[in-house]
Amino acid sequence: MYEKSIRQSALQVNSSRRFFRSFFCSFHCAPHQLTPHQLTPGKRNGGDRAYQTHALILATMSRPPSHSDESPLTDLYEHPGHLLRRAQQISVSIFHDEIGGVVTPVQYAILRMLSNHPGIDQVTLAGLVAIDTSTGATVCARLEEKGLLLREVIPHNRRQRALRTTAAGEALLEELTPGLQRLRKRLLAPLEEAEQRQFMALLDKLVQLNNPQSRAPLARLQDERCDED
After folding, report:
1. What integer pLDDT is reported at residue 129 of this predicted model?
2. How far is Cα 127 from Cα 117, in angstroms, rounded to an integer?
């Protein structure tokens, strides 16, 4: 009886050592490195409540968040769409502060895209700037009135117009460059240099992957798609 009692005590000590060694190890190991199965005794008869409790802790740690863990979004500034709208307001405000009333942000985008892709038609231009075609036609008409853009009939498709920037349009783009550089610096100034690069990369990723959700999605030129493929 005495020897049997000693053996039982030794088994209990060894079991406790294994448990605490596993317990403290769990704080230094990722859940995928240490699973509840590894910590459960060999017989797994449910007799060791300490092991069962620790297994439950690990299972909870490794479980992905449920819908009940999501924020109710009662704070308006938890909504990414609201923050993006505010960022756009700030950007437009700084744009007018640096550029003045010469052109609007959309007009600048039209001129810049035409300077990079002269001779494209209005539908293609609207797709590259990611605006609807009716808005694109209205903006182009205003730029033509200002003498910054030229519309020419396409011989093989008289229903479309080939668009080009005029000499005055190109001169304006060059004149606006310093102001646009200041705009970019002022807008990103609150961020550190590394944060600025990260922010631009994440913003580009957000826009690119959500492009199909837009009412006026970006439509790239055919040769640009081929280059990516």
Report:
1. 96
2. 12
pLDDT at 203 over 90: yes
**pLDDT value of residue 23:** 42
Q: Which residues of 72-87 are buried (b: 16+ CB within 10 A; e: fewer)?
A: eeeeeeeeeeeeeeee
Q: How many helices (H) and strands (E) does the chain have?
A: 10, 2
CB 52 within 8 A of CB 46: yes
DSSP 40-56: S-SS--S--HHHHHHHH
pLDDT at 24 over 70: no
Task: Give the residue with greater pLDDT, 22 vs 167.
Answer: 167
Q: How far apart are the first and last CA of the chain?
A: 80
Closest CA to 90 of 190, 201, 174, 175: 190
CB 105 within 8 A of CB 95: yes
Does pLDDT of 48 surpass 90?
no
The more confidently predicted of residues 52 and 133 is 133
Residue 112 scores a pLDDT above 80 = yes
Amino acid at 96: H
Count of Cβ atoms closer than 10 Å to residue 165 Cβ: 22
Long-range contacts of 101-110 (CB under 8 A, 24+ apart): 102/172, 102/176, 103/143, 103/148, 103/172, 103/176, 106/131, 106/135, 106/139, 107/139, 107/142, 107/143, 108/176, 108/180, 110/136, 110/139, 110/140, 110/143, 110/149
CB 23 within 8 A of CB 54: yes
